[in-house]
Hints:
With 400 residues, the protein is an alpha/beta fold. Helices cover 37% and strands 26% of the residues. It contains 14 helices and 19 strands. It has helices at 11-22, 24-31, 59-63, 81-90, 100-116, 133-140, 155-167, 171-180, 189-192, 195-209, 228-236, 298-314, 349-356, 380-390; strands at residues 2-7, 35-41, 55-56, 68-73, 94-97, 121-122, 146-152, 211-212, 219-220, 239-250, 253-264, 276-283, 287-294, 325-328, 338-345, 360-362, 371-374, 378-379, 395-399.
Amino acid sequence: MIKIAVMGYGTIGSGVVQVIETNQESICKKIGEGIEVKYILDLRDFEDDPIQSKVVHDYQTIAQDPEIAIVVESMGGIEPAYTFVKAMLSAGKSVTTSNKALVAAHGAELIATAKEKNVNFMFEASVGGGIPIIRALNSCLTADRIEEISGIVNGTTNYMMTRMAEEGCEFDDVLREAQEKGYAEKDPTADIEGHDAGRKIAILTSLIAGQQVDFEDVHTEGISKITATDILYAKKMDRVIKLLATSRQAGDTYTVMVAPFLLPKDHPLYTVNGVFNAVFVHGNMLGDAMFYGSGAGSLPTASAVVADVVELAKHIGRHIELEWRPEKLEIADYKQQTLRFFVRTGADADAIAQAFGSVTYIDVPEAEGEKGFLTGEMTEEAYEKKAEALGDVRQMIRYS
Length: 400
């Protein structure tokens, strides 16, 4: 009988317990023996819940129990999660987590600790919820050199952009609706300003590069400045606006960023709507592949966590090699990448021509008192200089 502990009995932790209880028979068959949740660590008590008999309030109870082989961390945040996870690994227990903040900040270190103790640290659910993207990168795609990863990796922002595209709503109205439906937090900053997606693309880039990418180095823009007028222009161009987390090979490093992009209908991510997530991968041998599914929610995320539990149970006493060295990767300057840009301005045609030269105008009658246009290809650095020369830039969205 394999005994596990769950640290944090919130949305994800309770989902993990539910998945194990509901699918116990099939899970046990896959492992080859029984599995039991022995402890649940939480600050709270749950008097009306059958799990109350398993609740403990001191993480050392778990760390010091030799019967516990696997620990699930579902508390969120960096502390005290880091302290608790480090203690579990140091005590010779394998750990799985859905905590992207923890993984982005301390992934390399925790993997090294797991290797030292001949246990494992897994984090499939930290990116993409129920989508098996990390396992794919670590096992199925190891023969490839990954040249690009582009993903819609935040369900809150994708839901909001979908609603704006479908209904022509303003940002504030859609945000309020998302909060009422429980898709957005009371403080939505991490989602709408792209910080959540930034941590996730930092994790994915760390894995494909094999060394640490600090999420603070990732250029990040959110969707809070997207308006209903932008949606009108997008429809005129037969495109949609999506918040993308992208990582593209640039020599011996990667250009990594999070920002809204205008996607054409033939782009694989064009039809990814609502709270769904998707990750597009291009490998030098594989070519194109896409991973699609539920990117958030209790049970989809818990399903990915329990899949890690099964994998950990199969490898008790054996460390699974995972290349993510602590040495920092200096990512490329995003300003050197070449793109086209969609621009809205109140300036006249002469000023536009003087700043940007030849452009393609997008005519939207509803957008009175302004002009919308597409630039030619140029670097981000060149665009910034031209935009400064123009002076009046009301909006800029990258054109994929």
